[in-house]
Amino acid sequence: MNKFALTVENLTKIYSSSKSKxxxxxxxxxxxxxxxxxxxxxxxxxxxxxxxxxxxxGGTVVKTxxxxxxxxxxxxxxxxxxxASVGIVPQEVNLDAFFSPKKxxxxxxxxxGITKNERITELILKMVSLEDKANAYSRSLSGxxxxxxxxxxxxxxQPPILILDEPTAGVDVELRNNLxxxxxxxxxxxxxxxxxxxxxxxxxxxxxxxAIINKGNLVALDSTEKLLERIKTKRVNFKVRKVDLNQExxxxxxxxxxxxxxxxxxxxxxxxxxxxxIVNYLIKNKIKIEDISTQDADLEDVFVQLTKH
Length: 309
Description:
Number of helices: 10
Radius of gyration: 24 Å
Strand order of the largest sheet: 6-7-8-3-9-10
CATH class of the domain at 1-85 and 159-170 and 189-225: Alpha Beta
Order of helices and strands: EEEHEEHEHHHEHEHEEHEEEHEH
CATH architecture of the domain at 1-85 and 159-170 and 189-225: 3-Layer(aba) Sandwich
C-alpha cells in the first residue's frame, strides 16, 4: 500500500472582481493524490491553474474551499508544517550575484531557523554537483549551474517533497539533461518530485504519473503509459519508389497524404483495420514500398486531445 505525500480534495479557488462583480474559478474541485517517492507531472496550458495550485501550497494564495494534506499535515491546521514539508524551485533565476553558493545556502538555512550544527550545506552542494563551485560568485555560474543552485536552495530544510516549476525553461538540451540527472538522483534518494513543464517529451520521459488540468478542472490522471494508450490513431510513413502526386488513394477510415514522389503518410485508427490491408492496398495500386516507419503517439497528442491546445 502506497503512502501519499500529497492529498488534494475538492480544492477550489475563486477570484472575484470588485469592478465587474464576476467570479473566475481558477481551480474547480480538484481531487488527486501524489504517492510517496514518485515523480508526478502536473501539466496544463497557460491559465489552467497550475500556478494558483503551487501558490496555495507555498502559502502565497489562500484557497476558497477544499482540503490539502501534505506529508500528514493539514494546510488549514498546520500551515507552517506544510510549508516546511515542501521545497519549491521557481521558474525565475533569483540569486544574489555577489553571494557564493555556500553562502546562499547558509543564509537560506538561517531563514528557516536551522541551527549551524543541523545544516547539511556541503551534502546538498554535492547532491546538485556544485561542490567545486561552493565558494565562487553566483554571477560566474553557468545557466545550468544556477538552475541546480535553485534546487539546492529549496533543499536546505530537507523537505520530503520537491516542486519544480518549469525548471528547464530557456535551458539548452545539454544543460537540461544534466539537470534531470540530478533530479533523478534526488528521487532515488527518496525525494518525491512534483514537476510542471511545457516540454511534454520531458514529462513523458521523467514522470511516473501525470495529471492534466485545463481551466481549473482535472481532465486526466493516470500513469504515463496508460495516458499514451488513450491515443488510438496510428501514423505510418511509407517510403516508396515512385508515386503520382495526383493519384487518388482511398480506404474507409484511412487518410492518405502523398508528401512527395517518394513518401506517403498514412493515418488510421488502430482498431478499425489490420495494417496488412493498407500494405496490400498500396501493392495492388502498383506502389512499390521501400521502407516503413511508424510514428507512435506521444504525450503531446494526448495533451492536445484533452485540452484542445
